[in-house]
Amino acid sequence: FNYIQRGANVSVAHRPATSLNNTLAALTAIGINDTERDELFKVLGAILHLGNMQFGSDREGGATLSDDNPEAVACAEMLGCDLKKLAESFVMRNIQAGPMVGGDSYKVSQLLQQAFDTRDALARALYGSLFDLLV
């Protein structure tokens, strides 16, 4: 996963299976039940898939994301959200002109870098929310 590869190169003295068992025991100790644990791992999985999500661009320079992008499909499934709405949230932005009620609203394509920035902002927000939940 891209987000893991970009981090520091850390050597762990424990076996991965032992570390996972310790993590599961710690989650139980702080009152996280099995259903909550599974949801927590789904969000972590979605964050990892977000980091692998790649965008293309159209002729005008707007970001694109195919409907069958495997990372987007996995992410939407893990987060329990609509795939099309998730994909659109990365490549389009809503502009509100005038008052909220009765004003004009329209959508504008995001540039490629804006789509990557939006993707990374969502990943940070999800991770931050998990951190706040656990700490």
Give the N-terminus to C-terminus distance in angstroms: 25 Å
Radius of gyration: 18 Å
Helix content range: 55-70%
**How many strands?**
4
The percent range for strand residues is: 5-15%
The dominant shape is elongated
Mean pLDDT: 91
In spatial order, strands of the major sheet run 1-2
Unreliable stretches, pLDDT < 50, 5 or more residues?
none
- How would you classify the helix and strand content by structural class? mainly alpha
Individual helix count: 6
> Could you spell the SSE succession in H and E letters?
HHHEEHHEEH
Largest sheet: 2 strands, antiparallel
Can you describe what's shown?
By secondary structure, the chain is mostly helical. Helices cover 59% and strands 12% of the residues. A two-stranded antiparallel sheet has the order 1-2. It has a two-stranded antiparallel ribbon with strand order 3-4. A hairpin with a 6-residue loop joins strand 3 (92-97) and strand 4. Helix 3 (34-52) packs antiparallel against helix 6 (112-134). The longest helix has 23 residues, at 112-134. The protein is elongated, with a radius of gyration of 18 Å. The two termini are 25 Å apart. The model has no long low-confidence stretch (mean pLDDT 91).
